[in-house]
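B., you asked whether I could sanity-check this one before it goes into the benchmark set. Here's the sequence:
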Amino acid sequence: MVPAAVAARDDQGASAVEYSLLVAAVATVLVTVAFAIGLFSRSTYDSTCTNLADHITTDEATNCP
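And here's what the prediction gave me:
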């Protein structure tokens, strides 16, 4: 059996859990930022494509998604 004084100092498991939670939080923020940038990029692309299509009279304008 482990003495109580040794068990009280053994906080490696708690540290691992804290680091895991920190890594999960950072990953969540990174994924959220990546999706936000993707949505912004898509919106900008669609807007640019629409503006170009409005000013182009050839058949190439119909290739915009």
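One thing to flag: The chain has a mean pLDDT of 80. Otherwise nothing jumped out at me.
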